Amino acid sequence: MNFHILTLFPEMIDEAMNKSIIGRAIENNTISLETVNIRDFSTNKHKKVDDYTYGGGAGMLMQAQPVYDAWMSVNEKVSSNSDGNSKSQKVRTIYVTPQGTPFNQNMAKDFSKEENLVIICGHYEGIDERVLEETVTDYVSIGDYVLTGGELAAMIIVDAVSRLVPGVLHNDISAETESFHNNLLEYPQYSRPKVWMEKEVPQVLLTGDSKKIAEWRLQESVKRTKERRMDLYEKYEELQKCKAVMLKQKLIHIDMIELINRGRAELIYLKDNEILLKDLLSDVYFHTDLSDEAHEKILEGMPEYELDKIKCLVIHQNENVGKIQKLIRLNDVVECYQAVYTLKEKLAVSSLYNVDNSPTKDGLVIKPVELSDYEKVKSNYKSYDGIEYVERRLSEGAFTGAYVNGKLAGFIGRHGEGSIGMLCVLPEYRNKKIAMALETYLINKELEEGMIPYGQVCLDNVPSLNLQKKLGLYMSKKSIFWLSE
Ligand code: ADE
Asked: What's the average model confidence in pLDDT over 362-377?
């Protein structure tokens, strides 16, 4: 990912951003950060970039021409087709301003999908409106206060976006699975010494009882959120209500329940038992559809802007897929069961693989799929979602491989919305319990991360249905439907 920052003070950014995690990511080319000095594009002989405001008013305004030429220098560079022709398309361009949309994690995730991101920093009283109209795609504020210039805001955005770029944090999937703590603030934390200024560390943290510690932390998080952020607390309460409804039919709703548990659910609509959630990280929508007329009401609860954005909708227990399809033009349908691992205890690994990562007697090691094997994954896994989806999940570090004597023998992945899937064993390695080893590994890893492991199995995938049974996963009695374009 490449950041391009248009500024009058490039040294401010260059000096601050070459440190720590971001500095390292720049150094090893995981991201790049280019500062473009707007003053270099002034056609004025004194390199002036500002002038008085028409209509009067205090202060100076940055003029359109130098900002536009600075922006064009980047846009022309990054918006060329591979054949060298310039596209009319605008590069994603943020103008940081207190009048923008408040910046949040969701926006950071959205920006992190771009290959190039331009950020324009204003100074003085702002920038001539006409150049903003020509160049800007997103107006972003970092909070309800006014800074002397946009540089600090730009750096905050670069930092929050960069840590979501695969490779920057070195453990790609953890940036993705790291939750927003269910809309809750972090609980208080303590380090040594046990007593400081006569204040003691809470007793429960010294017990080693992980269940009790988790309960205490949750309770403290809830308390703190209620005291400090009523807005977040209300969202938390509402989602807990949704969860209580869905727990009545846990297996069929496990995907929605886990969205809430993992802190990545946005509530779009809630009325009686009908719930529409959006996954904050993947643009997939989920609908409970527990009532007969729900398929019509789904539109009622959908903000208009959301409707056009729906590329994928998961419907539960629906006998009326056709009707919904007519309402929101999603032509592809995949029907599957939910497979859920409901126990808290890890699966027995026994002789499947070695937990210390050493090879088994058959030479098997489970580890992230290596870059050099990405092509093998792409040619062996035929995804309903197309090759681009597999490519993206590979680059996001979502695949775990089974290696036999150093060669890729099979793989499993985690889908964008959080379910386990994409399991495949290469033909020459079948019937050696490799699928079982891979799924056991991922289930145990998810349990360690506090998740309820689940996946979806197509109705006719008999080998997978058998594997789920053998591993002790429960299958939902009814099926669910994935609708997509
Ligand atoms: N420039 C000045 N103040 C700002 C703010 N609060 N957010 C983004 N950009 C700014």
From this structure: 96
Q: State if residue 97 touches ligand 1 by the CB under 6 angstroms criterion.
A: yes
Q: Give residue 104 CA to ligand 1 midpoint distance, Å.
A: 14
Q: In the numeric block, which tokens belong to residue 184?
A: 């809750």
Q: How far apart are CA 173 and CA 413, in angstroms?
A: 11
Helix (H) or strand (E) holding 151: helix 151-162
Q: Residue 308 has which token pair?
A: 């056009």
Distance 4 CA to ligand 1 centre (A): 18
Tell whether ligand 1 has an atom less than 6 A from the beta carbon of residue 124.
no
| Backbone angles phi and psi of 329, in degrees to 5 | 10, 65
Q: How many helices (H) and strands (E) are present in the chain, helices listed first?
A: 17, 21
User: Which pLDDT score is estimated for 294?
Assistant: 60
Residue type, 296: E
Query: Ligand 1: does its nearest atom lie under 6 Å from the Cβ of 119?
Result: no
Q: What is the DSSP letter of 103?
A: P
Question: Could you give the CA distance from residue 426 to residue 428 in angstroms, rounded to a whole number?
Answer: 6
How far is the centre of ligand 1, averaged over its atoms, from the C-alpha of 367 (Å)?
44
For residue 143, report the distance from its CA to the centre of ligand 1, in Å.
7
CB of 91 shorter than 6 A to ligand 1:
no
Nearest-atom number in ligand 1 for the CA of 146 is: 3
Closest residue by Cα to residue 400 from 171, 222, 234: 171
- What is the whole-number distance in angstroms between the Cα of residue 142 and the centre of ligand 1? 6
Residue owning the nearest CA to atom 6 of ligand 1: 98
CB 336 within 8 A of CB 254: no
pLDDT confidence of 175, banded at 50, 70, 90? low
The strand pair at 364-368 and 399-404 is best described as: antiparallel
Average pLDDT over the chain, rounded to whole?
91
Distances (CA, A) of 70 to 41, 137, 288, 478: 6, 16, 49, 58
Q: What is the enclosing helix (H) or strand (E) of 19?
A: none
Q: Are 317 and 275 in contact (CB under 8 A)?
A: no
DSSP H/E element including 108: helix 105-111
Q: Is the CB of 143 under 6 A from ligand 1?
A: yes
pLDDT-based confidence at residue 57 (cuts at 50, 70, 90) = confident
96 close to ligand 1 (CB < 6 Angstrom): yes
Query: What's the pLDDT score for residue 89?
Result: 80
Give first-to-last CA distance, the chain, whole Å.
Answer: 28
Q: Is 77 helix (H, G, I), strand (E, B) or coil?
A: helix
